[in-house]
Amino acid sequence: SQTIHQWPATLVQPVGSPLSLECTVEGTSNPNLYWYRQAAGRGLQLLFYSVGIGQISSEVPQNLSASRPQDRQFILSSKKLLLSDSGFYLCACRGAGVFYNEQFFGPGTRLTVL
Amino acid sequence: AQKVTQAQTEISVVEKEDVTLDCVYETRDTTYYLFWYKQPPSGELVFLIRRNSFDEQNEISGRYSWNFQKSTSSFNFTITASQVVDSAVYFCALSEPYTDKLIFGTGTRLQVFP
Q1: DSSP of A23-85, one letter per residue?
Q2: How far does B35 lie from chain A, in Å, by closest CA?
Q3: Partner B, chain A 38-57, Cβ-Cβ below 8 Å
Q4: Which segment, A59-68, A81-90, B42-51, B57-66, is predicted with the most confidence on average?
Q5: 3-state class of A17 per DSSP?
Q6: How close B106 comes to chain A (CA, Å)?
């Protein structure tokens, strides 16, 4: 089964600083990958998804960008963080085989922008 | 447009009580999947169940049961004889076909008191 790694686990950054969150996946190849954000006390919102290397779809206009330089690597970035970028960021991977219609989530990164 | 509504923001019960978490969804797709996830205080999303839109059979797993009714576009989740360890935020989600992007409800925070 798939294993999703995310780092860092927590991050505190000043407004205006850059951001790079990394997600890597084990146990599958050519998966669909997703970035979700959960703002404090709110539900999860899909930010980006990718169906393959270099293929990124953005769901909402925002201060963030995503890249997929390798099959099982998904990166979330920002050139200048805003206070509103604070939240819990979750990377997800679509399952394979009998789990094809399921999504598996990583442990998340908790980002605080001050 | 697709949408998931969890009208209950927070529910508090005493241990051993039964509790039902409501989920209502909207979609124009004929094929879709519905999910329930549990988010304990640690933050990770724990998969609980996936239901295919063509399978309206109710499902029971231990103390958990799910009632899927297409006629009312609902997919409710019942915990029987609740326990303190059930305290968490529970999310209902709907997937889009082909991309499997998940549309989440805003979540229901369940607190089970001893």
Answers
A1: EEEES-SS--EEEEEE-TTS-EEEEEEEEETTEEEESS--S-EEEEEETTEEEEEESS--GGG
A2: 8
A3: 42-46, 49, 51
A4: A81-90
A5: coil
A6: 4
pLDDT, one tens digit per residue, over A30-75 is 899 999 999 877 789 999 999 999 999 998 878 899 999 999 999 9
Interatomic CA distance for residues A60 and A7, integer angstroms: 23
Q: Which burial class, exposed, middle or buried, applies to B93 when counting CB atoms under 10 A from its CB (0-12, 13-18, 19+)?
A: buried
Give me the total of CB pairs closer than 8 Å, taking one residue from chain A and one from chain B.
Answer: 51
At CA B68, angle to CA B64 and CA B69, rounded to 5? 150
- A10-13 and A109-113 strand pairing: parallel
Handedness of CA A47, B9, B35, A29 (dihedral sign): positive
What b/e string do you get for A73-103 counting C-beta neighbours within 10 Å, with b at 16 or more? ebbbebeebeeebbbbbbbbbbbbeebebbb
**Alpha-carbon dihedral sign for residues B86, B79, B103, B3:** negative
Amino acid identity for residue A78 in this structure: S
Distance CA A12, CA A75 (A): 18
